[in-house]
Amino acid sequence: MRAGRLLCDWLDSHTESFRLSGPKTSTLERLRRLSEFTLVLVGMTRTGGPSAAGRYGAWAQGVANILWRDLHNAEEELREAVTTWSSPQTRALLLAFPALELITGRLFDNHTWMVRAVTTGTRREDHSNVNLAFTRDLAGLHDCHTLALTELERIRSTADPYAVSVQSMYDLTHAIFYATRMGRRRPAWTGDQATWAHQRLEKSGAACLHEHDLDLAAESVMSLLMAGCPVSRYVTDAVHAVAAIAEAEGSIPPHARHHDAASDEFTNRYHATLTGLAALAEYERRSPG
């Protein structure tokens, strides 16, 4: 798919902006970008499925090797940042470490420090933070599946059945990312959970697509396909919309509600471009050719 190649090219041209040694934004902001990128790479490099990881997997593997080398040299800067900002949400951003170790098969010299950083918290919120739990899961320390499904039940019990909440949509897609380990395991949810999540993602995703929020629409496509849901009319429509914008612009623009007029093009577009590429890769994995 030409659109996928264009999005890969755009991300390749901005690799420097994902590196901790790159542009001098705050360490935590650079770590946030890197964790978002590596989360997508975890899904793109998995094996299995009709076309396995395909050419997207080969591209993702190459990018992961570049990012591994850069992160390998960033221990001291990260130690200082994580020590200063030690909340569970901040430590969850260390996801890039286990993600890149998983993809490349190489441990970092500071692997022991990373494990200690994500496991030594004693506060109650440490044990209920699903983002930190997923970082531990990728590191092979503790399976987050049960907590991810608990999070799904929380979303299900509080979701407005008549309206689409951006935050609820974001939380739901990530609960499924975590429950499936970015498509690397079955969600193993109940029939009721599966039916509700499928219907909610389709309905909310269609609303986002109608509003031209391709970032959230792409996340819903990723979640549906990683969870093993069928390729529906909505999924096909959303993928075609992402592909059309990618071919026209070379990257994916944000919805107006996500746009920051004070930020540059990369900052505004990188997340939607990542999710757009991941949605295309998941669709091609299911529908090779």
Question: What does the model show?
Answer:
This protein is mostly helical. It has one domain: Glycosyltransferase (Alpha/alpha barrel), CATH 1.50.10. 68% of the residues lie in helices and 0% in strands. It is globular, with a radius of gyration of 18 Å.
What is the mean pLDDT? 90
Number of domains: 1
CATH level-3 fold name: Glycosyltransferase
Query: What is the CATH architecture term?
Result: Alpha/alpha barrel
Q: Compute the number of helices.
A: 15
Main sheet: strands, sense, barrel:
none
Order of helices and strands: HHHHHHHHHHHHHHH
Low-confidence stretches: none
Structural class: mainly alpha
User: What is the chains' assembly state?
Assistant: single chain
Q: How much helicity do the residues have? A: 55-70%
Mass-distribution shape: globular
Distance from N terminus to C terminus (CA atoms, Å) equals 8 Å
The CATH class is identified as Mainly Alpha
Kindly state the number of beta strands. 0
Report the C-alpha radius of gyration, rounded. Answer: 18 Å
* DSSP strand content: under 5%
Summarize the structure in short.
This protein is an all-alpha fold and 289 residues long.
Task: Furnish the topology, listing elements before pairings.
Elements lengths: L1 H12 L13 H18 L9 H19 L2 H10 L3 H5 L3 H9 L6 H9 L4 H5 L1 H9 L6 H14 L7 H14 L11 H20 L3 H13 L6 H17 L15 H22 L3
Helix pairs in contact: 1-14, 1-15, 2-3, 2-6, 2-15, 3-6, 10-11, 11-13, 12-13, 12-14, 13-14, 13-15, 14-15
